[in-house]
Design a protein that fits this description.
- The protein is of the alpha/beta class.
- Helix content is 37%, strand content 14%.
- It is built from 17 helices and 14 strands.
- Strands 3-4-2-5-6-1-7 form a seven-stranded parallel β-sheet, sandwiched between helices. A seven-stranded parallel β-sheet has the order 10-11-9-12-13-8-14, sandwiched between helices.
- Helix 12 links the parallel strand 10 and strand 11.
- The longest helix has 16 residues.
Length: 457
């Protein structure tokens, strides 16, 4: 059996991995580690869930602690990992921190959507490894809070998703700011949309390892297409699919619909949380923690969760809304059947979506026969398995009564007005009247008619 130690991984890191139950490397790790550990540039190609994070985290920590020792300096990291989303950046940091701790290396994350103060403070205190999203990192570079001239190892993860999001110009500028002689590792499922140009420009004499094609099948993943007659039948089916005991992720097209469905399921006794771009980082972290801890069994998400969100033992992925293109289908589906575990994927299809869904699955190389079902169909019951117990929703807070009008001071004068003009019912020269004149371009207000006068009594 191949072990991490037999591939050249230092014993301190092998011990950390062993304590996490990771004793045998995945194929992408077994293939790339002999090259990455000696400093070669590597292009790693593999689908989501193939174990790419450890494939670059291990050599980065091992080399920075061993072959490339250096002093920690404020604002000058020695290792840089670029990720397309803050969820993925956070996930990478969680994976690499136990390894870095074995050598007392410091790791920090940099991404938008939160105040930069904590990130700047961490950089000023000195860090060894930065896990960053391109936009915020470039902002901090322009503000001179961080310099990349000391970076010895650079990793670009999910490069194809970077391209999909339009980040390649920023990524190009960031890579150009790192030393040309540094080691560079690029991991991507595909090389389209300009990723190949990054490879040609920034990788030197690279070794390519292609473990899985982007559309290669996961043997432990089953695919089903459930066709329904209409919107109401779809609603009942989705609630039934969400009712099992195991973790499940439901994907929606829009943020509004994701939030709405999570609330509907929770109200129906199925604890659910949402994940989408409108949430603050604190809300995202809180909802992901609830999902990973089991407080919520269902995560209702947009494609923001299609990459980078890894929670163990997700039993079912449901495409409540079929995605727009086949790569999104594969990445959504990849949230289950990860790291050798089994999982199921269901696509719910309305009559008007049948043609587009068939085209999407053909491009994804997924061969499955659609089945017309209702929420009570035996195929659905078999997939759901044991239903979880009903969970009483938390009581809703009583709505606060709205204040009617603007309260007056005790002397009877209008708030903010001139007491001497308080008796005027026609605007007069009060401060409020002056503001109203300005708001309409200086035109005088029409004198109040009988109805208006009645309202001012």
């Amino acid at each position: 059996m191949t072990t991490f130690a037999s591939l050249g991984v230092p014993h301190a890191l092998a011990d950390v991995l062993s304590s996490q139950g990771k004793t045998e490397p995945f194929p992408i790790q077994a293939d790339t580690l002999p090259d990455t550990l000696v400093g070669r540039d590597v292009l790693g190609r593999g689908k989501t869930g193939s174990g790419k994070t450890l494939a670059f985290a291990i050599p980065m920590v091992a080399r920075l602690a061993g072959q490339l020792p250096g002093n920690r300096k404020p604002g000058r990291p020695r290792g840089l990992i670029l990720a397309p989303t803050r969820e993925l950046a956070t996930q990478i940091a969680v994976a690499i921190e136990p390894l870095a701790a074995a050598y007392k290396l410091k790791v920090t994350t940099i991404f938008g959507g939160v105040s930069q103060n904590r990130q700047v403070s961490a950089l000023n205190g000195g860090v060894d490894i930065v896990v960053a999203c391109p936009g915020r990192l470039e902002d901090l570079m322009k503000q001179r809070h961080v310099s990349l001239d000391a970076v010895q190892i650079t990793v670009l993860d999910e490069a194809d998703h970077m391209a999909d999001l339009g980040f390649l110009p920023v990524v190009t500028r960031i890579l150009a700011a790192t030393p040309q002689k540094g080691q560079r590792l690029l991991f991507s499922a595909t090389l389209d949309n300009g990723v190949d140009k990054l490879v040609k420009r920034f990788l030197t004499d690279q070794v390519t390892h292609s473990v899985d094609e982007a559309t290669s099948h996961v043997e432990a993943m089953t695919h089903s297409v459930f066709e329904v007659d209409g919107v109401e039948a779809k609603k009942k089916l989705v609630q039934q699919l969400a009712s099992g005991t195991g973790r499940r992720i439901l994907f929606m097209r829009t943020k509004h619909q994701a939030r709405k469905l999570a609330k509907q399921l929770t109200d129906a006794g199925i604890p659910s949380v949402d994940l989408h771009g409108n949430l603050s980082q604190a809300a995202r972290d809180r909802n992901l923690l609830a999902f990973s801890s089991g407080d919520a069994r269902v995560l209702v998400a947009t494609d923001v969760a299609a990459r980078g969100v890894h929670v163990d033992d997700v039993q079912l992925v449901v495409h409540v809304d079929p995605p727009a293109e086949h790569k999104a289908y594969l990445h959504r589906s990849g949230r289950t059947a990860r790291a050798g575990s089994a999982g199921d994927v269901v696509t719910v299809v309305l009559p008007e979506q049948r043609k587009d869904t068939a085209i999407l699955l053909r491009k994804a190389d997924i061969k499955v026969t659609p089945i017309r079902v209702t929420a009570d169909s035996p195929q659905v019951a078999e997939l759901v398995g044991e239903q979880a117990r009903y969970v009483q929703p938390a009581p809703k807070a009583a709505p606060q009564p709205q204040r009617q009008g603007t309260p007056r001071p005790r002397n009877g004068a209008p708030r903010g007005g001139n007491p001497r003009n308080s008796g005027s019912s026609r605007g007069g020269s009060s401060e409020g009247g002056q503001r109203q004149h300005a708001a309409v371009g200086g035109r005088r207000r029409r004198p109040a008619g009988p109805a208006a006068s009645q309202r001012t009594r």
